[in-house]
Amino acid sequence: MEKLKTVLLTLGVALLCFSCSTTLKVVSPKANQTSSQEFALDGGHIKITVTFNKDVDPSTVVVGKTFILQTEKDPNATGSLNWPNGKTVIFLTTKTTSDLLDYNPDGSFSLKLIGSDTGNGAIKDKGGKHLDGDSDGADGGDYKTSFVNIG
């Protein structure tokens, strides 16, 4: 019985430590895509829902600094953020697609989430750990993916 208690205690500590060391990652949209369709249009505005694996400190997600949407006509598109829960943020562009995309014949844009602070901050979880944007298992590194809106 004592051995069983020791094994369970060790297992419990291992699981606890594993959950503590998990880095903050983006679950969706998938990283490093070249023509993702994981976005929506809302009244002509681009709408991107980003889901993380852990609760994020919303004060670290700043449009134009740590959340960067680059379009064909705007290298740093403005927009608003809405947090339906601690792991999900919804970005909606201020401008419509006609002001952001060329449609020649399709419109493309990319999303970059900053995990390495180079002066403008970095996205962090509630515990202060930086986003593991490059999925190397360590804090830091930027997340990138690209989208195509079929014209």
Question: What this model shows, in words?
Answer:
This protein is of the alpha+beta class. Helix content is 16%, strand content 32%. It has 2 helices and 8 strands. The strands form 2 sheets. Strands 1, 2, 3, 5 and 6 form a 5-stranded antiparallel β-sheet that branches. A hairpin with a 2-residue loop joins strand 5 (79-85) and strand 6. The relative contact order is 0.22. The model is unreliable at 3-20 (pLDDT under 50).
Q: Key features?
A:
151 residues; alpha+beta; globular
Helix and strand arrangement:
Elements: H1 2-21, E1 26-28, E2 40-42, E3 45-52, E4 67-71, E5 79-85, E6 88-96, H2 97-100, E7 107-113, E8 143-149
Antiparallel strand pairs: 1-3, 2-3, 3-6, 4-7, 5-6, 7-8
Strand percent estimate: 25-35%
Oligomer classification: single chain
Sum up the overall morphology in one term.
globular
Largest sheet: 5 strands, antiparallel
Summarize the structure.
16% of the residues lie in helices and 32% in strands. With 151 residues, the chain is an alpha+beta fold. Strand 5 and strand 6 (88-96) form a beta hairpin.
